[in-house]
Fold these 2 entries.
Entry 1:
Amino acid sequence: MDLAERINAFVKLGAFLEQFAKEDATPTNSIPFNDIFFDGMKHQLKLSEENNRWFTKEQLRFALKNWAEALQKESLEGWTSTYNFNNSSSKKVAIIMAGNIPLVGFHDFLSVLISGHEVRVKQSSNDKHLLPYLAKYLEYVEPNFKGKIIFTEEKLTDFEAVIATGSNNTARYFEYYFKNKPNIIRKNRNSVAILTGNESEEQLIALSDDIFTYFGLGCRSVSKLFVPKGYDFQAFFKGMYSKSDVMNSAKYANNYDYNKAVYLMSLFDILENGFLMIKEDQQYASPIATIFYEYYDDLASLKEKLSEDAEKIQCIVTTMNFENQVDFGQTQYPKLHDYADGIDTLAFLTNLKN
């Protein structure tokens, strides 16, 4: 396969996914192999929801919609146009995936295959249904992928490079275990928002998307606010109000009740609105249904702090000029070139030496 053939296969996959991005998924006649895969995909989505209660129908549709839009020919060609795919021969690349949000490992999967390598995938048990099914669809639309995609639940063997995503604790294990292989090792990251008190109602409503999409479980989900001293949180809570139906999720509601009880018993000072709590805390990773906040004195000092903590931060929601800056409401819409942890995955893959 050449690059154009690989891109074409993923374009077809994107068209297949687009059918399931709507609430009432109906088959499109022009989609190849729909007669074989459409009903099966609906079943895999049902299994995903049953296996992981964070993967609601709405969150699954959101993930599929984003990937359907990303797998457009123009996007794929633009993304790959600046790389040299002739630097390396085909390698066997292992991917150890997280399972915090639906298809969280798909970008790595796409990157390995679009680079012309073979992939060995070890999935999280929290997100194990969709990707193998989509891989099977890929093999139908492009038979040359057959034999190049392997999923395993056992110990990874027979690989020449690795991309592993996990917690800070597992990252230490990964770094030791894979020290003799070319690797990308990812750790915990969270996203933050910088508020000034001058945000419009529309911006704060948009921020609610950055906070509540995927129930705040993604590394691009805002888990912490930086606010000026004297900040009035009334406007912030008003912007969050549109997401009050999050309490319809029993899993979220249980976490809210539990964490609220812990805070109250510990005599922590919190503010809450019935579905979201905010707590002053210097940490970046906040529990479910909680947003941490921290006051800042001036933007120059804040910029210095965030630069020092760069390895803990995925992106920063602000209208100001900060590194990794993202506009309000846009954290959950990464482009193909928005690499996790700022590590250029495609450069790593295209530079694997013979």
Entry 2:
Amino acid sequence: MAVSAGETSGAKPDVTAAGSPTPGRGAGRRWFGSLRAWLLIAPVLVALGVVIGYPVVRAFVMSFQKDQGLDPATGMFVEGGSAGWTNYTHWLWQECPTISGGVASCPPGTLGSQFWSAVGVTLFFTVVTVALEVVIGLGMAIVMGKTFKGRALLRAAVLIPWAIPTAVTARLWEFMFAYDGVINRVFGTSILWTSDEWPARFAVIIADVWKTTPFMALLILAGLQMIPQDVYEAARVDGASAWQRFLHITLPLVKPALMVAILFRTMDALRMYDLPAILTLDNDATRTVSMLVVDQIRQGPNSASALSTITFVMIFIVAFALVKVLGANAVRTQEDQRKGAR
């Protein structure tokens, strides 16, 4: 019987089993699938680049340019030219130009001298308001998650403060915190809530907590509704108390939603502008970084761009710390919980 050369040498035939694709064909399909996915998301990427990417890059470029100034010879406005890192040192080191052409510490009362105080006020508002909103919002979410008559009406009523525009909220609390307003009349006090240093700060905190706590409660409530009731029933059968069920079941399982709520609210609080700007007007005790940026725009957009870039970096660092250090990554937290349950 005749035997072919390929069979005698032990070489394998260059064909695959019926119905199984060749490796080259599988790689081609994967490449085509990736290309199709990129084509589908390309319009969104272009839109994000135009709406978000260009303003960020433009602001960063402007931050290295001097603002327009008066030419001593002609008395007319001229382009400032390259500024190097001057706009950044103006804020970080609080250095202001002098008449002789040098730099010196910014005089008290100028915008440059208020940078670090504005950063402190912003961080103070963020820490206090977010902490209060988490505690109150968690309690509200637990109450709204229970089954009782009128629950739908309660949920709708709770969202009313969050639905009111911030400018309207600020004006509402401004009337209440007035010298002859509701707060002083009810408590029999004569506090200048919008003028004194610490009363003005507490007024902003109270108004912000009243407005944004429903947002926290809504996000936490969504996480509570994902917890199976069978877990609570099993804990009751095992004799766990209400506090033990809250500590060992509710908190660990609601952590993904809670961390996302903290992340979103923290980033929002770091950009706080309209509430203190309207409620306390030009009170330096409540001046946030965003208010400083708006005030600087009226004097020079390039220096304001540098301050905006610093604010962006500050918010990015805080968000990175929350995601990486505190574990505010909801997807990773849920994966860890599933692995632990196996």
